[in-house]
């Protein structure tokens, strides 16, 4: 942003007519553009944004206002990104239409948001130190949430669900009498009705002791700018001995690990166990992280340095997990994380790889000449690897040991076909790297792009082999319709003649998707619709196909098509796999067309 020219407080207003003439504006706007009224507004607008403004003006007539991001030039000819709100302005003096524009400087908005974000994080850290149990209730959606605020956006949730369900669980914790039920009924009525401010006392357990423990609920209802009401509050426990709140001291001992500020073993394990016991309809990934050779770190550099390492590793784990889950410390140098909704191996790998790499980078240029710090990680995921916490923890623990056995400084994600024997017998299956290709599809395709575009013929062949193994393809063809040619890029030369004649028959090409992809789960489905294709591929013994029109281009009726083929019926090809293969297929086809244009052999 230009230092000299800026909106006052980052905002300004102006009115233009239907011919884009500035009718009036505030001093902030005129100071910004360095001009006077009756100038054409589009003079200060980036040429590429004129149509966006015209569209915004058109849309503003259909509703109260329309928001668009436009680039506007200041008096020093420097463009600023502006959030512009457009609305119709009533014109009492004439018939021409007027439009009211409100400008907000995007850089100023971002700067203010960053300040707010820092304040929120500060408050979250402060709340995490207090360690009190809190609750919130979404009145509109009947959603009660009981939690302890954690730092780095991580909360330890005790309950999340309907208010009546929470009340039933609370009453089930002890013997209920009429007084206890009435206590909870009154509390729930205050919460559900959105009482402005309330304090309610309820029994923790029922007995004849006059000094029985009680919970004190203090709540308040807040209303946002849209009128949405939310009840927020805090829960204190009054002790039976001294009649004072002792919750903070109990929680400090039972929930937080003082050395790393992570949740401790009991809190983390209970959280994971309760989460998995609910049988959620999404994935839950657990991982155990161990600092390699931690004893030697303590012996060589001292326990104070060991504590420093653990604290820094904990920070790395918290940052990597973010708001996807929680982190805990379950042993001396063992950390534990629980993450939800990582629906594929690549998402899990991304988090674990970040942790591994960041730990290894910790002391890379430390003047103390400290040896490299590394970690090993093992993980498993509900429901694919196990349906209960104990099974999943056992698997993740075994994968951690496998990572150690393979040389440390690595992570191992459980895969049933690769690791079942190790789980059952404690012995790993001897396999080369190719066994893991199908779990690294995104990486394989990324590597393929570089290797195929820049490598020699031998490198290309190896890249094609890795690609085929990863996606379990038996062969890869390239069809050049213009030259009536089929090239076998990978796999054995099939029996029978095939020069791609079917591409011009059976209305075959129009059946591709708009993105140039065609997935054929079973060629038998095309026996009647595309008989020439069916006959050709049946003769070659191919039963499943994914094809891609190179560049999604059809030039003069001619196309270049890559075809990935299977001879064994597999499960349905996931859409993400189809798109990854399309990327690889496009690289193969574009390389062929480039070589063809240069008269080089393929």
Q: How do the helices and strands line up, and which of them pair or pack?
A:
Elements: E1 11-17, E2 22-25, H1 27-33, H2 50-60, E3 66-73, E4 79-89, E5 98-105, H3 106-130, E6 133-138, E7 143-148, E8 156-161, H4 163-171, H5 178-192, E9 197-203, E10 214-223, E11 229-238, H6 247-254, E12 263-264, H7 265-277, E13 284-291, H8 294-301, H9 303-321, E14 325-329, E15 334-340, H10 345-360, E16 375-382, H11 389-405, E17 411-413, H12 416-425, H13 441-454, H14 457-470, E18 475-480, E19 485-490, E20 517-520, H15 531-539, E21 544-549, E22 560-566, H16 575-597
Parallel strand pairs: 12-14, 16-17
Antiparallel strand pairs: 1-2, 1-5, 3-4, 4-5, 6-7, 6-11, 7-8, 9-10, 10-11, 13-15, 13-16, 14-15, 18-19, 18-22, 20-21, 21-22
Helix pairs in contact: 4-5, 8-9, 9-10, 13-14, 13-16
Largest β-sheet summary = 6 strands, antiparallel
Distance between the termini: 51 Å
Overall pLDDT: 84
Proportion of helical residues: 25-40%
Identify low-pLDDT runs.
240-253
Number of helices: 16
Percent strand equals: 15-25%
Number of beta strands? 22
Structural write-up:
The structure is a single chain. The protein is α+β, with helices and mostly antiparallel strands. The chain is 36% helix and 24% strand. The chain has helices spanning 27-33, 50-60, 106-130, 163-171, 178-192, 247-254, 265-277, 294-301, 303-321, 345-360, 389-405, 416-425, 441-454, 457-470, 531-539, 575-597, and strands spanning 11-17, 22-25, 66-73, 79-89, 98-105, 133-138, 143-148, 156-161, 197-203, 214-223, 229-238, 263-264, 284-291, 325-329, 334-340, 375-382, 411-413, 475-480, 485-490, 517-520, 544-549, 560-566. A six-stranded antiparallel β-sheet has the order 8-7-6-11-10-9. A six-stranded mixed β-sheet has the order 12-14-15-13-16-17, with helices on both faces. A hairpin with a 5-residue loop joins strand 10 (214-223) and strand 11 (229-238). Helix 9 (303-321) packs antiparallel against helix 10 (345-360) and helix 13 packs parallel to helix 16 (575-597). The longest helix is centred in the N-terminal third of the chain and has 25 residues, at 106-130. The radius of gyration is 32 Å and the shape is globular. The model is unreliable at 240-253 (pLDDT under 50).
């Amino acid at each position: 942003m230009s230092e000299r020219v800026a909106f006052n407080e980052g905002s300004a207003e102006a009115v233009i007519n239907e011919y884009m003439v500035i009718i009036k504006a505030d001093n902030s706007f005129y100071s910004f553009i360095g001009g006077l009224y009756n100038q054409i507004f589009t003079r200060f607008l980036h040429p590429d944004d004129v149509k966006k403004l015209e569209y915004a003006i058109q849309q503003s007539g259909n509703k109260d206002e329309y928001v668009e991001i436009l680039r506007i030039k200041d008096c020093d000819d420097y463009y600023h990104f502006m959030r512009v709100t457009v609305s119709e302005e009533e014109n009492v003096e004439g018939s021409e239409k007027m439009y009211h524009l409100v400008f907000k400087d995007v850089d100023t908005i971002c700067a203010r948001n960053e300040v707010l974000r820092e304040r929120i994080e500060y408050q979250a850290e402060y709340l995490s130190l207090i360690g009190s149990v809190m609750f919130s209730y979404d009145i509109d959606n009947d959603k009660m949430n009981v939690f302890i605020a954690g730092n780095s956006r991580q909360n330890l949730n005790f309950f999340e669900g309907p208010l009546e369900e929470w009340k039933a669980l609370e009453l089930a914790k002890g013997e209920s009498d009429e007084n206890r039920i009435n206590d909870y009924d009154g509390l729930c009525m205050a919460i559900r009705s959105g009482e402005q401010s309330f304090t309610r006392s309820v029994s923790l357990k029922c007995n004849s002791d006059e000094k029985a423990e009680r919970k004190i609920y203090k709540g308040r209802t807040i209303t946002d700018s849209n009128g949405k009401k939310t009840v927020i509050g805090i829960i204190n426990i009054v002790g039976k001995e001294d009649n004072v709140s002792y919750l903070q001291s109990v929680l400090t001992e039972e929930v937080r690990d003082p050395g790393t500020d992570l949740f401790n073993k009991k809190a983390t394990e209970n959280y994971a166990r309760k989460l998995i016991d609910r049988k959620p309809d999404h994935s839950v990934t657990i991982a155990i992280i161990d600092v390699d050779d931690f004893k030697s770190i303590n012996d060589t550099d001292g326990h104070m340095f060991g504590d420093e390492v653990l604290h820094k590793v904990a920070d790395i784990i918290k940052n990597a997990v973010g708001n996807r889950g929680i982190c805990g410390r379950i042993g001396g140098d063992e950390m534990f994380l629980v993450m939800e909704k990582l629906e594929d191996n690549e998402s899990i790998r991304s988090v674990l790889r970040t942790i591994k790499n960041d730990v290894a980078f910790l002391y890379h240029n430390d003047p103390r000449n400290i040896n490299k710090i590394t970690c090993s990680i093992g993980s498993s995921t509900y429901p694919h690897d196990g349906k209960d916490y104990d099974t999943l923890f056992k698997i993740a623990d075994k994968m951690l040991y496998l990572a150690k056995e393979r040389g440390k400084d690595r992570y191992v994600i459980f895969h049933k076909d690769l690791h079942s024997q190790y789980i059952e017998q404690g012995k790993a299956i001897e396999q080369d790297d190719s066994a893991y290709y199908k779990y690294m599809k995104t990486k394989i395709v990324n590597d393929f792009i570089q290797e195929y575009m820049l490598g020699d013929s031998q490198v290309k062949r190896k890249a094609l082999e890795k690609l085929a193994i990863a996606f379990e393809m038996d062969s890869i063809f390239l069809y050049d319709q213009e030259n009536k040619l089929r090239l076998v890029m990978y796999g054995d030369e099939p029996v029978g003649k095939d020069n791609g004649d079917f591409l011009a028959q059976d209305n075959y090409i129009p059946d591709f998707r708009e993105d140039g992809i065609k997935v054929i789960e079973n060629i038998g489905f095309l026996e009647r619709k595309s008989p020439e294709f069916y006959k050709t591929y049946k003769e070659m013994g191919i039963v499943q196909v994914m094809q891609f029109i190179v560049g999604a281009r059809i030039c003069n009726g001619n196309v270049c098509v890559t075809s990935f083929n299977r001879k064994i019926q597999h499960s349905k090809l996931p859409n993400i796999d189809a798109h990854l293969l399309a990327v690889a297929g496009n690289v193969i086809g574009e390389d062929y067309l480039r070589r063809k244009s240069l008269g080089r052999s393929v």
